[in-house]
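Assemble and predict.
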Amino acid sequence: MNNKQFLTELSGKCHLSPEQAAEQVQTLIGVMESVWNNGDSVSLSGFGVLEVKKKNERVSVNPVTGVRMLVPPKLVLTYKPSSLLKDKLK
Amino acid sequence: MNSKINLSQLADLFAQISGLSKTASEQFVKAFFDIISQGVLAEGLVKVKGLGTFKLLQMEDRESVNVNTGERFTIEGHQKISFTPDAELKERINKPFAVFETVEITAEQAEKIGDDIETGYSEEPQSDTSEISDYTSEQTDNEPKIKDITQKRSTRVLLKLITWVLSLILLIGLVMYILWPIIGCKLLTMFDDKIAEKAQVTTIVETKSSLTSSSVTPEQSQNIEKPLMETEPIVNKNPESVVKEQEPEPAVKDISDQVVQQQFNLNREDMAKSVSLFTEADTVNYRITGKLAVHTVQNGETLAKISFMYYGTKKLWPYIAKYNKMSSFNNMGAGSVINIPKLAAK
């Protein structure tokens, strides 16, 4: 399902035009971003948790050349599906 | 900070910005995530522009070892939902750490850093296999995040403070620069007053000391002799009476006091004399009668030094300047030839 299909389905469910739906999706993502910036996580029952995690710095080695690199720490948006959703997969 | 935002809270925040009603916004948020989860289950892939891609991954069977017992067992193949954030969103979220870059390092450095990291990072490989440990590491990971944010804030505050102080100093400097003509004039007049006072004081001291030295010295010499004469007989009579015994002490004191005073007076006289030798008044009491010598200026020499060489005092340099018609003393470089005037008292 690509973005276009996603938007048409969303607009059908909420009685909006696809353009409006696209706009609202972007504002929703903006709201979630501000939540993540505050250090909070977005947790939805039946879907999962979307949160920002800090990954520590680490030393990685290029197996071909053997060159060691110090990879800096970074903040990464992670998703963990809820157990409800995982049960449905089985 | 570090709390979980649930559906209704997120819908509230969303309603504030989007302008939709509360129920409509809650419905929208719910639909948004429902479609994603349903889409992933049904089609295995959902792409949302601005957020990222949700994908269903098929995991193959694999062997693993029970850490406690060392037994081998197989983890059965299963499906897994993966999420890759949108590149733009990823960048925006990593903005606080965007300054860091991957650096190439030597093996020795790697060992050092590796030791530091291992303690905090050993949980990472486990989190892939078991879900429970992932939850625990989730909680521990949040703490450093908060620390980072607070550190950032403190540095920002510090930077603000520094800029404030710098701007304050600049402002003061500017004000001083503008008001310098006024303040400078006042300071100069104050300085002049002080010099004038000092000059007065020295002249007074001079006259006083000359007076005292002339009048006191003969008396003092008599005074010293007298008490000495007095004390000798009293000291001799020591065993006779206790009452008389007490007398010599003040007498001796008197002598010492007087001697000290005399010395003090003498010192003051010397001081006054030495001062009077080089007061400013002297520098006007000469007139130029002719040429005394021709002097080639050496490196590091000043008019005052030259004056000291020829006249024995630094104070008479203005005559040299006058004789050579110098308007500015800066042009007297090494090697220039100047005439030394012959001076006679007026």
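DSSP finds three helices and five strands in chain A.
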